[in-house]
Amino acid sequence: MEEKINSLPAEIRLRAEDRIHINLHRQSPTLISRIELFLMLIGPGILVMVADNDAGGVITYAQTGSIFGLGFFIPFMVLMLPVAFFVQEMTVRLGAVTHRGHAEMIWKRYGKFWGSFSLGDLIIANFLTFITEFIGITIGMSVFGIPRFVSVIVFVSLVIAIQLFLRYYTWERVSLVIAAFNLVFIPLLFFLPHPSVKDILDSFATWRISGGVSSLFIYVLLANLGTTIAPWMLFFQQSAVVDKGLTKKDIKFGQRDTLIGSTIMVVVAIAIIILTGTTVYGSDANGSLGITGILQLFAKRVGSFPMELFAVGLIEAGFIAAIAISASTSWAISEAFGWKRSINLPAKDGVKFYLPSFIALVIAASVTLIPNAPLGYLNLTVQVIATIFMPAAMLFLLLLLNDRGVMGNMVNKRWQNAIGFTIIGFLITMNGLYGLSVATPTIFNHLAGVL
């Protein structure tokens, strides 16, 4: 058996060794073995959700709180927890049943045209999202006096090194350690002089929209949707499930992993909205401050040390998302073109796998060095673009989950399809409202008055 395993290609051999280790723990009835088994199987769900609280997400939540305060968006984010879990849980089942990545499934099941369409959407969205990650990283590092070009060089190098030189299991563990720093926003709540628990609770009772329904509200709502559920997440988690080697037996662990990640994502998002909704709200009615102005006001209200911790969280958010989105890009492109595709691949064997995402990473990071680029506006716009792309991505996901030739008896149930198409309908409606607010403001304002 050992000789047979050693004769396998490196990426397959390493995955096989991981599976043997997991199966040995699965056969042990002890509580410690069960806990160790759970810890070995978690990863993709937590990573995709924490990476979803990326630098663009942190900036979006910070701007949301600064513009709209403690109102509509706190209960809205609670509602996003089951939505995010529902969407990502489908990728766990699809990956564990088919042992194929998302791009590969679309390409093989629906042909080159739709495969190219979905891959094109992903590459564009991922490239733009890379830019927002380095916006966050460079702004966060500037708090500590680090020049932009130094921040770009250091973090581009780190992302490339982590993906290029670590095997999947180590890459995943290192990424989880980095992701843990996303939690820094939660203890920051204790630095607030007087967080209004009553106002937070009232938001659930009233869903109050400061300023009413406006084009700015729809724009920020779309940005919050785009940073909660995004196309890259579907591709990332399904491919991670495959690269990790999860099977049908592991689906329950994958679902728990995703639920834990969804909960962390929403708790951190709400914490950020409360932080800026308590300290900055009232000074940024039209969203003109940007994250730099928000950080300055935050420091004035609560002190420089909490602001520095906020900056650390912003840096971490960009870093972990750049790692995840780089992997998502590599997996998707390699799956579509039938190349070798695994983070277990040695550098010399995985040039085609690693190179496209590294090129995109370097170019996107360089954009943040352009003088006077409208980076603050770009951040929210990227989140909105993710929302525009999401209905098509979800439609492919639902089609695959209803294909018995693919899923067998693990196809979606009727209630799952009902929820899925409801989410697609809501996304399309919000996209339509935003288009209406841009194209025909008069009609939109009349409709907003009715709402």
What would you note in describing this structure?
- This protein starts with a helix and ends with a helix.
- α4 crosses α15 and α5 packs across α15.
- The protein is mostly helical.
Count of the separate structural domains: 1
* Structural class designation: mainly alpha
Give me the CATH superfamily. Answer: Amino acid/polyamine transporter I
Tell me the β content.
Answer: under 5%
Q: So, CATH architecture? A: Up-down Bundle
Brief overview:
With 451 residues, the chain is mainly α. The chain contains 20 helices and no strands.
Features:
451 residues; mainly alpha; Amino acid/polyamine transporter I; globular
Structural topology:
Layout: H1 2-6, H2 10-27, H3 31-41, H4 44-52, H5 55-68, H6 73-98, H7 102-142, H8 148-165, H9 168-180, H10 197-206, H11 215-226, H12 231-244, H13 251-279, H14 290-302, H15 304-337, H16 351-367, H17 375-401, H18 404-407, H19 414-439, H20 441-450
Helix pairs in contact: 4-9, 4-12, 4-13, 4-15, 5-7, 5-11, 5-13, 5-15, 5-17, 6-12, 6-13, 6-17, 7-8, 7-12, 7-15, 7-16, 7-17, 8-15, 8-16, 11-17, 11-19, 12-15, 14-15, 15-16, 17-19, 19-20
